[in-house]
Amino acid sequence: MAKMGNKLIALCSAAIGVVYTAGYIVTEPSATQASQSVSATAAVGQERKTADSQPSQQDMQGEDGPSYQQVPQENNEPKSGSQTQESNQAQASTQAPASNQTKYRDGTFTGSGTNRFGTVEVAVTIKKGEITACKITDCSTHYPQDYIDPELPNEVVQRQSEQVDVVSGATRSTEDFEMAVDEALQQAQTHA
Amino acid sequence: MPLHNSSKTYSQAALYMGTVIHIQVVSSSSRGTVEQSMEKAFASFRRVEQVCSRFSEQSEIMQLTRQVGVPVQVSEILFETVRFALTVAELTEGVFDPTIGRTLERFGFNRHYLTRKTITSDYASTACSYQDIVLDESARTILLRQPLLLDLSAVAKGFAIDLATRELGQFEGFVIDAGGDIFAGGQNDRQEVWKIGLRHPIETNTTFCTLRISDTAVCTSGGYERISPIQADTHHIIDPATGTSPSSVLSCTVIAPFAMLADACSTAAFILGPQAGIDFLEQNGMEGCIVTPSLDIHQTKNMKRYIV
């Protein structure tokens, strides 16, 4: 029914609007704002409350607070100590292992590797010990460019007379980048 | 004769949410302007991953998982993605069900894509469903009535795409390709509507169909990419009723105004199967097609409007 279709569309539209209205703002990593509220990780920690939390605090702080921005930290100290709180909070209520991940140094580390398509290079950025970005810096072989194949031996055949701009398919895994990512993370673990 | 002689195509790719996110922008704006917007677009993926990743203990969703039986106040991103997942779950009467996480984990879908660290839930799992999740819209809380593992992979990536499109709408054209889930806006560098190929589910280096798309999302669910390391005939899409992957569909593509909608419904239609899946799409105002193991293509009535 058209009615449900419209409802679904309205829900999507509203969801995006809500996230933006709540102040989901991201600045470039190179922009440093002195008067920042909280970083993403700390924000999540602050929002993690149990039943007695005040709903009105939701919009005042955290990732959805009006002043939320992705802030690059010049040093490794958490902004308000809430990151530490968050870790303790998480550990207190769970059986998860105490050390949640390997210690990574902050910075950007490059790595290269080979896969079935050739060589790829990545740049992994670590902030406050967490991986925040993994850019593909050598773009030439990150996914196959062979969109045209005239010889398909089955019913699903449509001769492609024009090249396509992009291909939709099942979610591609990142295994083609594993070697490059491993190399970058390796560097992030060892000391200079 | 091109209208914008100074239009250039900018292209960047990064790994987020377990896949390759490739963004292309066609614009005559300055490189700085384009790159700044692309950075914000990528930040949408980073942010949604931070909230919704099942593979990171510190993600908001995994922290939610560790608080059973109490309403937990959550971010807007988490609330809205869960809300949408529940809406589709209700609509399909549980055929689509985001509480499938524990099953996915058991089939070996439990590694962080960058660190490759394994995450394991240690609670004794009992039968659970989307009905075990209670949302309070005014308080913005989520309550899990029993221990369960939420998997938002059919919703979160689409939502990240939709958020990212907001950053790129100012340009003449752009494509966000999140590992095969696509939103194409405006026109390509030849001032044409974008041409999207649909990946052949068996000869995966080829395409079986080409679509003309502008300002629309195209999402494909398929069983040929992420296969379970535990059980060979199982992939990432699992039918909650059987606990295994459907065998009647190889690939399902949905075209819809929003990527979150196309993303969730391609998974739902995949599980529903060739007839019911197409009916589901038509009933809910979307176009799409399903490829079966015998390589028959079932498509919605108006899908042909998009086909080149």
Task: Characterise the protein shown here.
The complex is a heterodimer of chains A (192) and B (308). By secondary structure, chain A is α+β, with helices and mostly antiparallel strands. In chain A, 27% of the residues lie in helices and 15% in strands. Chain A contains four helices and four strands; from the N terminus they run H-H-H-E-E-E-E-H. Chain A has a three-stranded antiparallel β-sheet with strand order 1-2-3, with helices on one face. About 50% of the residues of chain A have low confidence. With 308 residues, chain B is an alpha+beta fold. In chain B, 28% of the residues lie in helices and 24% in strands. Chain B contains seven helices and 13 strands. An eight-stranded antiparallel β-sheet of chain B has the order 1-2-6-7-10-11-12-13, with helices on one face. Chain B has a three-stranded antiparallel β-sheet with strand order 3-5-4, covered by helices on one side. In chain B, a hairpin with a 4-residue loop joins strand 4 and strand 5. In chain B, helix 1 packs antiparallel against helix 5. Chain B is globular. The two termini of chain B are 23 Å apart. The mean pLDDT of chain B is 94. Strand 3 of chain A pairs antiparallel with strand 1 of chain B.
Could you tell me the number of beta strands of chain A? 4
Task: Supply the helix-strand structural class of chain A.
Answer: alpha+beta
Rounded to an integer in angstroms, the radius of gyration calculated over CA atoms of chain B is 19 Å
Mean pLDDT of chain B, rounded to whole units? Answer: 94
Strand content of chain A: 15-25%
- Kindly provide the radius of gyration of chain A, computed on alpha-carbon positions and rounded to a whole number of angstroms: 22 Å
Largest sheet of chain A: 3 strands, antiparallel
Shape of chain A: flat
Give the low-pLDDT segments of chain B.
none
